[in-house]
Amino acid sequence: MAHPLELRAHALQCLLEPDPATKTAAIAALAQARLDGDWRVDSEAAFEVVRPIPGRPERPQLVPPRLVGRRSMVTVEGRAMMVHSLAHIEFNAMNLALDALWRFPGLPDAYYTDWLRVAKEEAYHFSMLAAHLEVLGYAYGDFAAHDSLWEMVEKTKGDVLARMALVPRTLEARGLDAIPPLRAKIAQAGDMAAAAILDIILRDEVGHVEIGNRWYRHLCDARALDPQAAYAALALRYEAPVLKGPFNLEARRRAGFTEDELAALS
Fold this sequence. Notes:
By secondary structure, this protein is mainly α. It has a single domain (about 5-265), classed as Ferritin (Up-down Bundle), CATH 1.20.1260. It is built from ten helices and two strands, in the order βααβαααααααα. A two-stranded parallel sheet has the order 1-2. α2 (about 20-35) crosses α4, α3 runs antiparallel to α4 and α5 runs antiparallel to α6.
């Protein structure tokens, strides 16, 4: 009889895979094993990693954010650049979910299955965007991209509390604010297929930020920390970006931010 898949070890294998199509297929297989009940979690396992994290293709070329080109969305190339930048965000988001899954020991099984769900949904988003890029005549890797999301993943690898505070509920939560105006621009340019993909991404991202909020509060409770005071201290220590409005307060509410936290934003 086959042994059930151990989620953390398999998540690490998915994370190290450089080819996007192979990576998304491996995540889908892991998520299916979980649905089939063919899984277990070794929450205390220690892993030795000898290859660079994350596994990624040779392209896109990574450059500082200011060097990522901007084009008008009225041209096909301009829209392709926008879809490419979104695909790159989702590629990084898939990797960050896998990293949250394998890296941090000693958490309840529900933590690991939550992050597997996020990885599966981010992989789906990436696949949709990559397919739409091909419809526009381009491929993932054709344009330069920046890596600021992954830099915060790297910074917070020593503390799961910092990771939950500053990746899902800070950087990913910015997506809740950014997607509606971007969707309006893409729809105005006539690309309704891309607009429909953004509707799916916004719906799912609310759930991903909610997972970050829930586990952040769980960890604060376990460490007897006040969530708001701890967040302010972590944002300062790890040099998190200062959040600028306008904010999607309705989506942030659904994602589990408290009224006090929303009031502090403004």
